[in-house]
Amino acid sequence: MPSVAALAYRAARPALFSVGGGDAEAAHKWTMGRLETIDRHRPLRALTRSVCRPVSDPVSMFGVQLANRVGLAAGMAKNGEALRAWPALGFGFAEIGTVTWHAQPGNDTPRLFRLPASRAVINRMGFNNHGARALAARLRRYGDSAAALRERLGYPLGISLGKSKITPVEDAVGDYVSSLRAIRDLASYVAINVSSPNTPGLRSLQDKGFLDELVAELRDESRGVPLLVKIAPDLTHGAVDDVLDVCRERGVAGIIATNTTIGRDGIAPAERALADEAGGLSGAPLTVLARDIVRYLRAQVGSDLPIIGVGGIGSADDALAMVDAGADLVQLYSSLIFRGPAVVSETAQALKDRTA
Ligand SMILES: Cc1cc2nc3c(=O)[nH]c(=O)nc-3n(C[C@H](O)[C@H](O)[C@H](O)COP(=O)(O)O)c2cc1C
Fold first, then answer.
1. What count of other Cβ atoms lies within 10 Å of the Cβ of residue 136?
2. From CA 354, how far away is CA 356, in angstroms rounded?
3. Taking Cα atoms as reference points, which of 71, 52, 53 lies closest to residue 61?
4. Residue 312 beta carbon below 6 angstroms from any ligand 1 atom
């Protein structure tokens, strides 16, 4: 029996998908506007909670208390928008950003494409964001430490860091460090994003030498905030091994697997024309790829390292399969677009039942 949230979203989806003449970014902006309205008004938050029925499943991971095992993946709330709305939708934690040191507009539009028949998204947003300092200022409205924010909001925030487009790759470390200094007191964890396909040269930071220097410097500046590394699904096993060596050696607190893929498998024939759009592919075509990376990671690290599984999780079964492959927590983004918030509590409940 579909939930009220699922039925309501199914009814609203055609209208949402026609916002801006069908432009996906226009629909995203419209949605964020509604979420910010929910964020501002306590009765609307209560109403959202009563429809979405957040699952309480407190769990501690890398020293952070999460409200449940399902998080909002990076990229939706790039500037820390609607922070009181996400837990009302049922998320147990949220990763905000990716932010960069310099505010930047991102790539030219159009840069976001929905592929409904494939339950997929292609994006080449290019880290459009207001910058790490602006994010810090926004977060300080709620508290001046990660603990105060956690207390006030009722769930923890991870902050994802990336490289500014104008900063050359050889100066990337300093760019990340500047961002870290701006937000380190406010983050329950920091995600080091070296895996977005939309910033030229960024993924080369996954190479062992670069990554080692980057993680070492960030570690020195972290003031004890857990650092997680987010990896691409397109890495060979050898490249994953290199990332793991760095993570073990430098005391990384966990891995987030995975970002979007540059591959184009799994796109429905009717949507083949969109496959030529540059950018990262997410959603259903990523489900097995991301899960296989998580399975490989878990086989290499044993029970030691926390893993957040992300990529194509669109149902309770997908989330359970990700946990069976070795993830401790999951995140999602694309399935929110196609299924609405019902997918959040559905997956959180399944994971609660599995681990009870
Ligand atoms: C529009 C869009 C923007 C994204 N922006 C970011 C980002 O800024 N940083 C990041 O680490 N991942 C970003 N991602 C990747 C997601 O966090 C996630 O890793 C990926 O979409 C796979 O999950 P999904 O299949 O549930 O969407 C973005 C994804 C989408 C669809």
1. 21
2. 6
3. 71
4. yes
The count of domains in the chain is 1
Residues 124, 316: Cα–Cα separation, whole Å: 28
**Which CATH number goes with the domain that contains 67?**
3.20.20.70
Torsion sign over Cα 181, 171, 98, 298: negative
The first and second tokens of residue 143, run together, are 């508290």
Q: Whose CA is nearest to atom 28 of ligand 1?
A: 75
Q: Of the residues 93, 259, 261, 331, which should be mutated to test ligand 1's pocket, given the most ligand atoms within 8 Å of the CB?
A: 259
Q: Which residues of 60-99 are buried (b: 16+ CB within 10 A; e: fewer)?
A: ebbebebbbbbbbbbbbbbbbbbbbbbbbbbbbbbbbbbb
Catalytic pick among 196, 282, 335, 345: 196
Domain interval for residue 198: 4-355
pLDDT digits (tens, 9 = 90+) for 186-230: 999 999 999 989 888 888 888 999 999 999 999 999 999 999 999
Give the pLDDT confidence of 118-153 residue by residue, as tens digits: 999 999 999 999 999 999 999 999 999 999 999 999
100 in ligand 1 pocket by Cβ < 6 Å?
Answer: no
Query: Is residue 334 annotated as part of the catalytic site, yes or no?
Result: no
Atom 5 of ligand 1, residue of closest alpha carbon:
75
